[in-house]
Write a structure and sequence with these properties.
2 strands, Four Helix Bundle (Hemerythrin (Met), subunit A), 6 helices
Length: 197
């Protein structure tokens, strides 16, 4: 079924990614939402993300529909892709674990919502987005197809551009000065390392 080792590596990572999200979604499913900020634009962008991150990789892996866009992934890209994939999966899991009951798949405030500034959130405000970007890069490096390989990044980037400022506005509205102070001591996607002066 799979012609390339890189396809198998990606598929294993893909399953881990989906299972991780499913576990944390089921843990927070019954929690009460007190505020939700999702509009039509975000819903449309989420549909595109589902197509790019789920549907197109599955079509590439299990059908010949995208074969016209196949290419050969060099060995060095497979090794780098595997390392990036493992890093992405660890950060994706750690982000969910650190958020715990405060995680939601869309822009929501839950009852008893608290600001998480520990773990991977200590120096990064959006480590889960970082993990998704890393996963998208791994997908491009591992899949032997121009369309399925780059579809996750191409569809997630617009969602990130739209969602990130809305999410930070929602957090400022909810947590006020506490979140503003957190913004000053953290970075969006990459950790802030302290330098000794």
């Amino acid at each position: 079924m799979f012609e390339h080792t890189s396809d198998i590596i990606f598929l294993v990572g893909f399953v881990v990614y989906i299972v991780t999200r499913g576990i944390y979604a089921s843990r927070t499913k019954s929690l009460e939402t007190v505020e939700k900020r999702v509009d039509a634009m975000e819903r449309v962008l989420l549909v595109f993300v589902m197509i790019g991150s789920l549907l197109l990789p599955i079509l590439y892996l299990f059908t010949p529909l995208l074969n016209f866009a196949n290419h050969v992934v060099p060995d060095w890209a497979i090794w780098i892709g595997a390392v990036v994939l493992m890093t992405a999966l660890w950060l994706f899991w750690r982000s969910h674990a650190d958020l715990g009951q405060n995680w939601s798949p869309t822009l929501e405030i839950r009852s008893e919502h608290r600001l998480v500034t520990c773990g991977v959130y200590r120096t990064m405000r959006h480590p889960m987005y970082t993990a998704i970007f890393l996963f998208s890069i791994a997908q491009a490096l591992l899949l032997n197809n121009w369309i399925a390989g780059f579809s996750a990044f191409a569809t997630f980037f617009p969602l990130y551009v739209v969602r990130r400022p809305r999410e930070e506005r929602m957090m400022i509205d909810q947590f006020g000065e506490e979140y503003e102070a957190y913004m000053k001591r953290s970075r969006r996607l990459f950790p802030r390392f302290k330098t000794n002066k």
